[in-house]
Amino acid sequence: MPRQMTCPACGETEDLSGERTDAGIVIRCGACEAQWARDTPYTCATCGGDDIHMRPQALTQYSRGTQLSIVGLHYIPLCAGCDAAMLARANQQKPVPGQYHSAAARKRRDGGDDAADTLILPR
Questions:
Q1: What's the number of CA atoms in the CB half-sphere (13 Å) around residue 94?
Q2: Which of 50, 31, 30, 28 has its CA nearest to residue 41?
Q3: Is 32:59 a contact under the CB 8 Å cutoff?
Q4: Which parts of this chain are annotated as the region Disordered (predicted)?
Q5: Residue 76 burial by CB count (10 A; 0-12/13-18/19+): exposed, middle or buried?
Q6: CB of 60 within 8 A of CB of 40?
């Protein structure tokens, strides 16, 4: 899954370079010279928690008129706290709907799990 790299010290997104070492890949910021490990564990963007689960999200398109078809899957991070309702649904072998925005990937304004309440989901 592609990651958007941002320097944790200065917020730089363009002037970044990586170097392969025995411990893994180290990212260096050209603007402020900060260094950090690339493969740090995921944390929730909303609550900062580290109990993150990768679950499949459906990629859909209308194939015939109003018939919505799943054309592919990709994996998104779900926080056990902030995305609890959607994680429970995903644990029942149901893909996360394409219009769902994970709290682990993007900070929610209210910090709650209300995004699942606005989706109309089949049983």
A1: 12
A2: 50
A3: no
A4: 93-123
A5: buried
A6: no
Express each pLDDT in 42-69 by its tens digit: 888 888 888 999 999 988 888 888 888 8
Q: Which residue matches tokens 């900062």?
A: 48
State residue 89's pLDDT score: 92
* CA distances from residue 33 to 6, 13, 107 in whole angstroms, order as listed: 13, 13, 27
Contacts of 85 (CB under 8 A, 6+ apart): 113, 116, 117
Q: pTM for the whole thing?
A: 0.61
pLDDT value at position 69? 86
> How far is it, in rounded angstroms, from Cα 47 to Cα 54?
17
Q: Report DSSP letters for 58-116, one per residue.
A: EEEEEEETTEEEEEEEEEEEEETTTTHHHHHHHTTT-PBPTT---TTTS--SS-SSGGG
Question: In the chain, what are the domain boundaries?
Answer: 1-40, 52-108
